[in-house]
Design goal:
Elements: H1 2-13, H2 16-34, H3 42-45, H4 51-69, H5 74-78, H6 82-87, H7 92-111, H8 115-124, E1 125-126, H9 133-158, H10 164-186, H11 193-200, H12 203-211, E2 214-216, H13 217-238, H14 243-265, E3 270-272, H15 283-294, E4 300-304, H16 312-331, E5 336-340, H17 353-359, E6 365-370, E7 376-381, E8 384-389, E9 392-397, H18 407-416, H19 418-430, E10 435-440, H20 452-458, E11 462-467, E12 481-485, H21 493-504, E13 508-512, E14 516-518, H22 520-526, E15 528-533, H23 539-545, E16 547-549, E17 552-556, E18 559-564, E19 573-585, E20 598-599, E21 606-608, E22 615-622, E23 627-631, E24 634-637, H24 641-644, E25 656-663, E26 692-697, E27 707-708, E28 715-716, E29 721-722, E30 727-728, H25 731-743, E31 760-761, H26 763-801
Helix pairs in contact: 1-7, 2-4, 2-7, 2-26, 4-9, 4-10, 7-9, 8-26, 9-10, 9-12, 9-13, 10-11, 12-13, 13-14, 16-18, 20-25
Length: 802
């Protein structure tokens, strides 16, 4: 058999069809991937991935492999050499296998020089070597597997006729059917498991799954199944007159049928080979959507409006959304009907479409696209989805827009956030009852009008209540989270005891407490205000739990601006307001990941006390590298000139102003007298808490929204909105995430911790050497294959003409 393989391989290398196949394949790939503008151009996409190469190669294999294989059996039949081969001590199966293996070796030889593409992406990566090599290796293996099936199809078609043209047309048709046909057929079906099953029978589905780094048992079985069936049919065609062989083939056919039936009953394990496990669905998500598979009455529909003519970045987000929903639907028993809708196809005029979508809480986003010649084009896109369960609908924003991030970073953050966003919507629509939270009143806390935006945002997840504490130690037990937002008056010992025991029983508290107090009216009217310690009486509780809010105010270079009237100027001017820092969120915490800076005013620093090993403390918010602590009492003014003239004024860095604590806390009332005003009625004081959580922030301004206008013209501005710059900061995201983290222990919030490696290309290197890299990736593969084919041809000529 080795002799046959060598003979067939040399025959292909020395034939014109072999040279034609290699040159067309390499030149087409080189031109489309590295020269011509379009969706396939790797350098234009900006991402260090070979996804486009593998997609294009798959299509080229559909077209070119039939030309490579059309002569393998047909020529033997036409020259009547097939009967001579049969007369030798070589079985028909060995003849077919040798032709198949020789053709596959040739295809692998043609693929070998494309490794230069990997090298190019390696050196163009930002940073150098920023590639997911596991996915690339798996994609090459999948491409070889695809080629092996197409070669088997070519040999089958070649065995049907002595005419090579007929063999080519038949192979091309069969390749098209098994690669694209099942996908096209599945589009005619309504949806569900049947539609996915039909699509998964095609090789396009198999390639899409494996080339993104995901392998399941069914993917591998589809490849093996095609190989077995095609090889069996080819053997049958070439052994029609041999009853002995036909009998064996009948047994093989029955065995393959039994294997397929067995495989339908075998679990389908799935393996994610990506470096960051980006396609691994969390256990929480699996359990949540698993309830859909068990339900007969729930009807879930997902409409995605990110469709149509999109650039590569948003096409990447669209494809990632499609892939995620496919993966999630698998665990839902395919009970989710997923549709991708081009907004332009809606029965709405082009002029009224933006208003129509905005009324449905999906306002358009203007996409400015710049091509390689600097030409700017504008397009409205709608990166949203609707999740509909029965008659209830929630909108899902697919795009994260984090200020300071590049477009690529925001798109990657959006892809990473898909699971959290969709699962968040599903859990809200599928929940049977809502949790309750409470805002505490009675101590000068922020009035309801100034936390209106926060209550509206939290009402999506919770029943929001307000009220005073009273004297009943169990009054807070029904609330999952208690929010203390901006108290300015002292808490009584009774109220502190009730808060402490609420925590001991596993309650969760969000403390938004200012360490210092000043008069905003004096500051606005007189241009100055005395600051003083904010006496809330909560210091002893927080100290026992492991934190201390400083009696100070923080100034920061990274701050918002304020509009003030200067006596020497006719118009108000903007000055930096150092008492309003833009706080930095922690990058790796589930609460603060992927949110922009948090705007605050009159912030106090927080000291973390190492009091208990049973409590973990994570910093959520800090000031910038250039900060200063101003102890109180101190006169607060708008005078910034003396600050700017002192180069050493900002002498602190990254001061903690927001901390999350989790664990088992000690009671502040252990070995402490309890006031008689508490209505204990046999209640026993707890001295150690259950496993619970709290968040402490040294500013109430984080949750505060502004209210402008009067009467019917009153308008509530979003919290975190800066009227001077018109920018919206991450305050709402922080508050919502903080309360959700406090309220939930089921692992849902951990979905926010998911990360994905950002594989980018260095745009500067591309700009400086585009032509060089294009020439490298076209000439090297062509020269390599030319040397191989030319060398073999010259050697044969030399050998047989001596």
């Amino acid at each position: 058999m080795n002799v046959l393989i060598r003979k067939e391989l040399v025959s292909i290398l020395c034939s014109g069809i072999g040279l034609f196949f290699a040159l067309i394949f390499l030149v087409a790939n080189g031109a489309m991937l590295w020269i011509f503008e379009g969706d396939f151009n790797i350098m234009d996409t900006g991402y260090a991935t070979l996804e486009k190469f593998f997609n294009l190669s798959s299509i080229l294999f559909v077209l070119l492999i039939p030309a490579l294989t059309m002569r393998l059996i047909a020529e033997e039949k036409r020259n009547r050499t097939l009967d001579i081969l049969r007369s030798r001590p070589v079985g028909i199966s060995a003849i077919i296998s040798s032709k198949w293996l020789a053709s596959l070796l040739f295809v692998m030889l043609v693929l070998l020089p494309t490794i230069i593409y990997v090298y190019t992406l390696y050196i163009l990566g930002s940073p150098v070597g920023n590639l997911d090599m596991g996915v690339i290796l798996l994609s090459y293996l999948s491409l070889i597997g695809l080629a092996s099936i197409f070669i088997a199809v070519g040999i089958l078609a070649s065995s049907l006729s002595k005419n090579q043209i007929i063999a080519f047309v038949v192979a091309l048709f069969i390749n098209f059917v098994i690669y694209f046909g099942f996908d096209l057929l599945s589009t005619l079906l309504e949806g569900g498991a049947t539609k996915v099953f039909v699509a998964s029978c095609g090789l396009s589905y198999y390639m899409t799954q494996i080339q993104r780094g995901v392998v399941s048992l069914n993917n591998i079985w589809v490849l093996i199944n095609y190989m077995l069936i095609i090889h069996l049919i080819t053997l049958y065609i070439l052994s029609l007159r041999n009853k002995k062989i036909n009998k064996k083939l009948g047994i093989y056919a029955v065995s393959i049928l039994v294997l397929n039936i067995v495989m339908l009953c075998v679990p389908n394990p799935r393996f994610d080979f990506t470096a960051d496990k980006r396609y691994t669905i969390s256990d929480y998500s699996k359990t949540l959507v698993g309830s859909l598979a068990e339900s007969r009455s729930l009807h879930v529909r997902v409409n995605v409006y990110l469709d149509g003519n999109l650039n590569f970045g948003f096409q990447r987000l669209r494809n990632a959304t499609n892939q995620f929903l496919d993966d999630l639907n698998r665990y839902a028993g395919y009970k989710m009907d997923v549709s991708f809708i081009n907004p332009a196809s809606l029965d709405v005029s082009r002029e009224s479409l933006p208003d129509y979508m905005a009324q449905r809480a999906m306002p358009p986003i203007m996409l400015n696209e710049v091509d390689r010649d600097g030409k700017v084009s504008k397009q409205l896109i709608y990166p949203y989805a609707e999740v509909i369960v029965d008659s209830d609908t929630l909108q899902v924003s697919l795009l994260k827009n984090i200020k300071g991030n590049t477009a690529e970073e925001n798109l990657t953050a959006s892809i990473v956030n898909l699971e959290f966003q969709f699962v968040d919507a599903l859990r809200l629509l599928l929940r049977k009852e809502s949790q309750a939270i409470a805002f505490i009143e009675g101590h000068g806390e922020l009035p309801r009008a100034y936390v209106y935006d926060a209550e509206e945002a939290l009402a999506k997840y919770f029943f929001v209540n307000r009220g005073e504490i009273g004297t009943n130690p169990s009054i807070l037990d029904d609330f999952k989270v208690v929010v203390i937002a901006g108290p300015t008056q002292k808490y009584s010992e009774t109220e502190k005891y009730i808060l402490d025991q609420y925590l001991m029983k596993g309650g969760r508290i969000l403390w938004l407490v200012d360490g210092a107090y000043l008069s905003l009216d004096d500051l606005a009217n007189k241009g100055q205000s005395a600051s003083m310690r904010n006496e809330t009486g909560l210091d002893d509780l927080l100290f026992t739990y492991g934190v201390r809010i400083g009696s100070n105010l923080v100034q920061d270079v990274q701050s918002s601006q304020i509009l003030v009237q200067n006596h020497s100027e006719t118009q108000p001017i903007n000055i930096p307001w150092y008492y309003s820092p833009l706080l930095l969120p922690s990058l790796d915490n589930t609460i603060t990941k992927d949110i922009t800076e948090v705007k605050a005013a009159f912030v106090s620093s927080i000291d973390i006390l190492n009091k208990s090993k049973l409590v973990t403390k994570d910093i959520l918010l800090t000031t910038s590298q250039h900060s200063r602590i101003v102890p109180v009492p101190e006169m607060i003014t708008f005078d910034v000139e003396h600050i700017q003239s002192d180069a050493h004024y900002f002498n602190e860095s990254f001061l903690s102003v927001g901390v999350a604590l989790k664990g088992m806390f000690q009671s502040a009332f252990n070995n402490r007298l309890i006031t008689d005003s508490i209505d204990l009625r046999g209640y026993k004081t707890r001295v150690e808490s259950a496993d619970t959580k709290m968040i402490v922030v040294g500013s109430s301004d984080i949750i505060r929204n502004e209210v402008v206008g009067q009467g019917d013209n009153t308008e509530v501005l979003p919290m975190g909105y800066d009227r001077t710059s018109g920018r919206l900061y991450g305050n709402k995201d922080f508050i919502v995430n903080a309360v959700n983290w406090l309220a939930n222990d089921d692992g849902w919030m951990e979905l926010r911790a998911k990360t994905q490696q950002l594989n980018l290309l260095d745009k500067k290197l591309i700009y400086e050497g585009r032509n060089k890299y294009a020439a490298l990736n076209i000439l090297v593969p062509v020269c390599f294959i030319g040397l191989i084919i030319g060398g073999v041809s010259l050697r044969r000529r030399y050998k047989y003409t001596r």
